[in-house]
Amino acid sequence: MKTILNISIGFLIIAFTFTSCNNGESSKSNGALSSNAAEKVYVAPGQHDEFYAFISGGFSGQLSVYGLPSGRLFKVIPVFSQDAEKAYGYNEETKPMLNTSHGFIPWDDSHHPDISQTKGELDGRYVYINANNTPRIAKIDLTTFETTEIIEIPNSAGNHSSSFVTENTEYVVAGTRFSVPIPQKDMSIKDYKGNFKGALSFLKINPDNGEMSIKFQILMPGFNYDLSHPGRGKSHGWFFFTTYNTEEASSLLEVNASQNDKDFIAAINWKKIEAYVNNGGGTKMPTNYAHNLYSEETHSATSTMIKEVLTVNPLDVPGAIYFLPTPKSPHGCDVDPSGEYIVGNGKLSADLTVHSFTKMQDAIANKKHDGEAYGIPILKFEDVLAGTVKQSGLGPLHTEFDGKGNAYTTFFISSEVVKWKLGTWEVIDRKPTYYSVGHLMIPGGNSAKPFGKYVLAMNKITKDRYLPTGPEVTQSAQLYDISGDKMELLLDFPTIGEPHYAAGCPASLIKANSKKLYKLAENKHPYAAKSDADTKVVRNGKEVHVQMTMIRSHFSPDNIEGIKVGDKVYFHITNLEQDYDVPHGIAMIGANTSELLIMPGQTETFVWEPKQVGVWPFYCTDFCSALHQEMQGYVRVSPASSSIPLSWSLGD
């Protein structure tokens, strides 16, 4: 306990010292935020932002869409959590999206979005994002800004080193933070060391539609696999994962997982393993995981349970995996645009470690090993080291690149972003953040072609930056101009959830492909009504199906009779509008679900189980026209024993 107390006191002293320094600097920098900074983030009415920023929602389970440089929130895309505003996870069509082997799981912890790439450059087609708690990867289609696929990751726990894509979007990875027994079984936690494993999953991506399937899982030693990035350029074909807890401790990790002077970056030659698998290598393991797909034709999701996964033992593919020693408890793992430098951000290291891919290749070729871990060669630290950024800050976490030969690293304890030069390893500039910064993002900063105009820092604590809102204050992001030699703080703005990472993309790559017309003729929903003439109400025992339409400014039908207490009424509503930005909503008194927000040309379903006799209204929840208030209807509910027949009408 004395050791723990001493470590804790030491960290408090360090944190207080640097916070005090930053506070002193902030009083000067705040005064320097002149109208010039305001002008740089001002986007005039009717004008568009230059960049999209897709910011993870953390414990909200969602993905938010902001504009840069304005910091304006445009949309919250529901991914792993139910969203009553959009009925995601509430309507019958999207409930299957949240299915897992553990059942219906309507929440998760979303961390790391990544945008699809072609030849190492952003292509603006899809965003992939991970679920950390119940391991999953989701795909968001950027023509519609909707979640269209979620795949569960078996043999995993704490899906943190995800979801990062290779330079031609061949794969998206899902790495496990918490090693577990594989396959799962009842065993003592004290037997962790040598028995638990960490699965690194490689999901093959269909180049035509972006859909995912698990190609193989590598069953690695039982370390914690924290973050990852793909190689690019000269290192394309490799993937790099930071590890901590190489001690394989299972209790009190803040002490017991911080004993080793160095942990590892795991270098994975995925092309070599892919060739091994394509030639029949690997072992099929029984498992159970969900693959959920949303159809743009039927506007409905389906969930399929898959019963096996292909696993690979690293020892069966010699020369495919190596460990790069990296001080100390490395968190972020980042690769520069050329693919030469691999940055290991050691949380507990006084310096920033940079490895060389060229030196790594030489060390592999000449077998410059420093022992092994579970049969996997450990390369000699000095033989793979490119350089060290000395005394760069306290608590380095993540690094991104501007494409001009500079790197930018966040320091959690000293609350700052530090700019340094690749190759010379000299610190060029540093700016405080407010406070305790985690990730940072430069649009395209994890690709071969960064757009080095802005850096966005995502902070864990805001404390005195905003009006108080009770026991929890909002999290925030801060925007810096990096177009010159020195960074300039331009803006800070609140964010949803706890932002972790973000993916930034020029708006020009996305907005031109945004879908504008939603044709009714393409609606293949089994209960779609494509005109008022198609509407009907059908009883099958105690189950009633209402096929309804909506258009400015009425429902059809708008009066329904013959419903009984105890019925289960399915409302299938089709929005007859076809132009974008004309959604309609519907809510029913007593419905034990959310409202529906139905996009143009789409059909959605909610279930209503009336408990009381009476005449009950429904109405449009989304303001759609000057006659929005008139967009309503009634359902008459009679006793269960009633003989009143079903009838429906519009205008009668």
Write a structural description:
Helix content is about 10%, strand content about 40%. With about 650 residues, it is mainly β. The strands form ten sheets. It has a nine-stranded mixed sheet. Residues about 1-30 have low confidence and may be disordered.
What descriptors fit this protein?
652 residues; nine-stranded mixed beta sheet; 6 helices; six-stranded mixed beta sheet; globular; disordered N terminus; mainly beta
Q: How do the strands and helices of this protein lay out in sequence?
A:
Elements: H1 2-32, H2 35-41, E1 51-56, E2 63-68, E3 73-77, E4 99-100, E5 103-104, E6 114-118, E7 121-131, E8 136-141, E9 146-152, E10 171-175, E11 197-205, E12 212-221, E13 224-230, E14 238-244, H3 253-256, E15 263-269, H4 270-278, E16 283-295, E17 300-312, E18 321-326, E19 330-335, E20 341-346, E21 352-356, H5 357-365, E22 369-373, E23 376-379, H6 381-384, E24 385-389, E25 396-401, E26 406-411, E27 416-421, E28 427-432, E29 437-441, E30 454-459, E31 475-481, E32 488-495, E33 502-506, E34 536-540, E35 543-551, E36 554-556, E37 559-564, E38 568-575, E39 584-588, E40 596-598, E41 603-608, E42 614-619, E43 632-638, E44 647-649
Parallel strand pairs: 12-17, 35-38, 37-43
Antiparallel strand pairs: 1-2, 1-33, 2-3, 4-5, 6-7, 7-8, 8-9, 9-16, 10-11, 11-12, 13-14, 14-15, 15-18, 16-17, 19-20, 20-21, 21-24, 22-23, 25-26, 26-27, 27-28, 29-30, 30-31, 31-32, 34-35, 35-36, 37-44, 38-41, 39-40, 39-42, 42-43
